[in-house]
Structure formats: structure tokens, C-alpha cells
Amino acid sequence: MMSEFSFPAYTVGEGGEKEMNMGNCMNRWNDRSQGRCGCGCGNSNAGTLCVGTSGNRDTGAPLVTDLAGATERNGNFRKVFWTGENLQVTLMSLNPGEDIGLERHEDTDQLLFVTSGDGIVQTGNCRNNLCQCRASAGTGIFVPAGTWHNLTNTGTTPLKLFSVYAPPEHPRGLVEETKPCAARRRCGCRS
Prior knowledge:
The chain is mainly beta. It has 2 domains: 10-56, no CATH class; 67-187, Jelly Rolls (Sandwich), CATH 2.60.120.10. Helix content is 14%, strand content 37%. The protein is built from 3 helices and 13 strands, in the order ββαββαβββββββββα. The strands form 4 sheets. Strands 10-7-12-6-5-13 form a 6-stranded antiparallel sheet. Strands 9-8-11 form a 3-stranded antiparallel sheet, with no helix packed on it. A hairpin with a 5-residue loop joins β1 (10-12) and β2. The chain starts with 9 loop residues before the first strand and ends with a helix.
């Protein structure tokens, strides 16, 4: 027996990614935006998505998708894929020899997950004293807030990864086609 939270059918999303058919759950999300919870519990708070008796506040609609597939199809240096109130997912593609750039996020925890390619990860509390290790498909890199980190593509094909930020780090809808585009945005330059 399938519960209403089982999603057996795929649809194709805006970017060509496979998304699960949300059916009744999507109707509940749409009800939420109109000031109703949608599950019959009587909750009239439009800022809460009720799942049974517990709620989860979020600004991005629920999404069940082929994240690894979307990551593999992404050709941009960085593309914001989904943003909620407390969490954000970006897709990245690093060309051979390219790196993310040594950085740290003071108040943001981060998970980087490599879906394909080979690279070197650097992490540490001091930018001048970093540990290094190899990364390849299936490698998860957990980066606590305030930690210096970088990922460099050492392979001959693009290194594909997705990154999870908590809280969100980038503007919604951001697309940086190349690393120079990202650098210009950070320094405030145009073109």
C-alpha cells in the first residue's frame, strides 16, 4: 500500500531534470501559500508546511528530484538549484585544473558531494596550514562554519559536485557560467 507521501511517477523539470510527481503533497504546498495548511489539522499559519502533526517552515517548495543527474547535466561553474529558508543547494562544474577558490564561510556549514571527476580537497583552520586529501565520485566533504576549504579538479574531465549550505549563501536563482563570472560578482565588478 502506498502512502500519500510515496511518489511513483517522474515528470521533467524546467532544466530537464527528472522530478517526482508530487501529486497531493504539491496541492498541500499550494494550499499553504493561500493561508491553509491543507492536511485538515486546522493550522491556518501560511508559513508552516504541516506533515502530520509536525511542521517544517521553508521558503522553497518541496522537491523530490534526481539531484545527481541534475549535477551531471550542469555545465555552469555555479548554479543555485534550490533555496529554502535555512538550506540551499548549488550545482558546480569545475574544468580540469580549475578550483572553487580557497574560502571560508563564517556562519555557514557546508557539504560538498562529488558526483564525478577527481580532485584534491584542502581544509583547515588556518589558510596557510591546510590538510589535503583526494576526492572522487561519491566523496562527501563536510565543512563546519569558519573552516578554510578548497576543491581543485586534478582530472582530465569536468569535476561535478553539488554543495549544500546551511543557511543559504548565494542569491536565489544565481547562475555563474564561469569562475571569472563568480570572481566579478564577488568583487562588485560588472562584465
